[in-house]
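Field: sequence (string)
Field: structure_tokens (string)

Example rows 1 and 2, in order.
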Amino acid sequence: VARKCFLSDDSFSATYLPTFRSRILRKLIGPFAFAWFALFSISRNDSVIVYNHSFEYFLLLCILWFRRVAVYQDIEDVPIASDRTFIGFVNQLFFKLTFLLTSGRKIVVSRQVASSLNLKDYLVVNGAFIPDSSNISDFESKWKDLSEGGPLCIHYGGTLTTATGLDLFIQALKILTRNYNHVRPIKFYVT
């Protein structure tokens, strides 16, 4: 069991709740742990962000909705509509419930996700930050190494499966290896 962790940065606090390594235990105990946290640790004036959607969030979301606590959904992945399995149905159901029980204003990973959901009120938090190089001296720039022929680092965050584009990832590897490997080293990080 992981321990509860409180982090604070720039007057913004985040809490990471205990969890079990076992997926079965997480599914069985998680909803009650979140509900307990909602009842005894979250105040009316707090703002809560839930990541994507999950069966485990349902009791938490119901409690926070009745208590009128501001809850925002951070949408990075949308369930695959063509997935007709039991798990696919559960994912679609809890995505819709999470969508309804959170604020109408959504946090999304891209404008494409917002567009695919027909969102009118959203905040895009892109996965990359490109600093204004005029404010940073050359030796401090994170881009200096790249501009001088250093390795091209490609970061992929998320689950890499056939449903999330494993075939595209493999094709990209082949293209980069074939066309750009002699130009500069390429490093991949999958998290």
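Row 2 begins here:
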Amino acid sequence: QIIMFGTTLILYTKSEKQITNITNYIITSCVILIFRLIVTVPVSAWGSGTRIGQYLGSGQSGGYGNTNLTYVLSLGAIFALFKGIESKKKKYYILVATFTLFSMLSGSKKSIILLFITLLLTMILTSKNILKFAKMLLISSISLLVVWYAIMYVDVLYQSVGFRMEIFISYFNGGETDASTLSRSDFLLQGI
């Protein structure tokens, strides 16, 4: 999906201004999506282990799909991060944090891992010199530890994604895991 989006963006845009407009539209659509989530998802579903994507429209499992929800919010977070780095405006960093939080509440392990890897790489690779690179690496590492701590010890986040991350990690330790992790590992083994 990301490759198709990027290719389409390159093929159908003629100027940097058009790309800027598209990224602004995506960020705006993510803000609207969050407002829709706040209005649509019942209060009892937040942090209860319920996958919030099921409350939006039709799609996978009768809803928008948790993975799709996280993909959209992740893309918004990445574009907001680029805008924040480029413009040096703090409001974009607030959007990154907001989009990331709502992505975590979707409960999609795969998308959340992809989001954090992309955000960390973006922060590190956009640093201009070795000192800024080291600083961004340190900030990224501390941010990752803070987020991991929050996922594991803040009840709302733990019920949304923390317990799923524990199950995912237990797969590598030889423990019990869920059907999602087993099916993905089977796909990988078949592909190899």
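free_text_note (row 2): The chain has eight helices and no strands.
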